[in-house]
Amino acid sequence: MAIREKYNTELKELQNKLTELGHFSIDALEKAVIALESQNVDLALKIMEEDTKANILEEEINDAAMLLIAKQQPVAIDLRRVIVAIKIATDIERIADFAVNIAKSTIRIGNEPLIKPIVHIKKMYDLNRDMLRLSIESYNEEDLDKAKRVSKMDDEVDSLYGETIKELLQINLEKPEFRSQITQLSFICRYLERSADHMTNIAEHVFYMVKGKRYDLNT
Amino acid sequence: MASVIEHISDETNRENVYKTKELNLWYGENHALKNINLDINENEVTAIIGPSGCGKSTYIKTLNRMIELIPGVKTSGEISYRGRNILDRSYKVEDLRTKVGMVFQKPNPFPKSIYENVVYGPKIHGIRDKKILDEIVEKSLKGAAIWDEVKDRLNQNAYGLSGGQQQRLCIARCLAIEPDVILMDEPTSALDPISTLKVEELVQELKQNFSIIIVTHNMQQAARISDKTAFFLSGEVIEFNLTNKIFSTPSDKRTEDYITGRFG
Q1: CATH number at residue A143
Q2: Which of A76, B8, B109, B151 is deepest in the core (most CB within 10 A)?
Q3: Amino acid A215: pLDDT
């Protein structure tokens, strides 16, 4: 008979929901990049439609966390685990919103041929995907090494972002007739860069959960 | 979008063990229970909370008719247990009590050995076979999650156990008669926090096989362990609902004020 088995079971359910939301968001982001690359407006529209699922999951996580606090009165690390789950859910839900933003940009670009292959954007997405997986694992396993790796990868995303924007500005000078598309592509880069910042937030939350102290990994 | 909590509903199809209809109870002139209507499901933990004097202990004591021991008590209405009205005088109280066990606030083992405490009830029911009694002792003590702690000293006096162990022994004694329902009247209020958690975990396990009704002053305990909670105030049931609902979004302002510590 384990003490506080009920708390542990309910916390596990909360963590499972969080993982589910994480998978949903990363799928959405992946679909958004595929839609952009293949200029598939239908897929982009589908991403926008499906986003309500992320919102519902986030609400479920918040409700479950609230019930856990109301019924189990967790303290110390038990309490931090629940509070951090709420915060992480907000960050992950935001990532799904970025997928929607990318989908909207894809729709705006429409069927105008892409001015260049989206190599950097895909790289940024790859990093985002790995960061989200790692950050969720770091929460579930309370693994600070994984959390640290997330913040390191954010530096890579940032430098890719810097490079790509520079490149896009250059193209803008050479082919001003594509200004609208270049603007959208810049936005998309920005969304992926912001999304990675949210993963870094998750890593910070994990540090707070484990250590009880706040760390700024975003610098 | 509606939140999950608003969608909490009682989707189980469990049977009622108790159905209370329009129960009123007076201690002399004092109207202690007023029009109580409560249906209690099997294999659930039902918590009864409320400030002192709200009638929660009175109510639980009607469920095994212990209330009759108090002079000047009058009742009206009906409490049916498994379909039969127990307030009916033809219902034999002995029959009821073999089905309904009770655990009290303070552990009350008999001044006898651990073994004798557990076999006390079965012996009254005429079981004499040593082998069967041994089995009952082991099963009951295991059921009460105390077997490992006492199996090597079954013949020692129960008074030598700690308070938390004594309370689990009392639960084992209650299990020995294989009841259907276990009533618990503030079973952990005399225990330290760790013993309290042990009893709470035990309650979670017991509900697989028994229906449990627990009176508690500790609202957090009700929140932690029960499936449904009834809030009593001045002899009335103010709110009876799923514990998730009561402790997240109670419907009645008085419930909210009580569970948030505004009064009581």
Answers
A1: 1.20.58.220
A2: B109
A3: 84
